[in-house]
Amino acid sequence: MDEITIIEADLAHEDHQLWVLAMEDAYAADPLGNGGPIDPEARERLLGALAAHPTTMIWLAMRGGTNAAKPVGIAVCFLGFSTFAAKPLINVHDLSVIEACRGRGVGRQLLAAVAAKGRELGCCRLTLEVLEHNPARRLYESAGFKQATYAEDAGGALFMMKPL
């Protein structure tokens, strides 16, 4: 496999916009993502909404040389805040690697770039959610992620949602 370069995406650049859309389309279509395409109306709004959101950070894993680089992975993250630590945190909202490049360290490189940015910003932690049976759990656990616990007797944190 060609060398992988991790870049922080700049949504002001048209090529970065196209790469982010391509990677989000691939992630959405994957059974471990959305299992189908992004809703056309949501896709139409996506780049503008990401650019307008004040805490958006996106990394792309690029394969190939400067003139022929193609995206093979993405990490879409948002800066959050921990009230208990009184410090920022980074939530890894989407982490995806195209199927042909999985198991080759691309996801690990993306997570390392996110962690480096977190340290630079003085973050107290990285957070993410993962489906219970997603094979990527092995990657996350080997990178130091674990189920969140705050008090021993309270049990582990659960991710919950309420559609609006």
Structural write-up:
There is one protein chain. By secondary structure, this protein is α+β, with helices and mostly antiparallel strands. The protein has one domain: 3-Layer(aba) Sandwich (Aminopeptidase). 30% of the residues lie in helices and 24% in strands. The protein contains four helices and five strands; from the N terminus they run βααβββαβα. It has helices at residues 14-29, 40-52, 106-120, 137-142, and strands at residues 4-8, 56-63, 70-82, 87-97, 126-128. A five-stranded mixed sheet has the order 1-2-3-4-5, with helices on both faces. α3 links the parallel β4 and β5. InterPro entries: Acyl_CoA_acyltransferase, Diverse_Substrate_AcTransf, GNAT_dom. It holds the Pfam family Acetyltransf_1. It comes from Pseudobythopirellula maris.
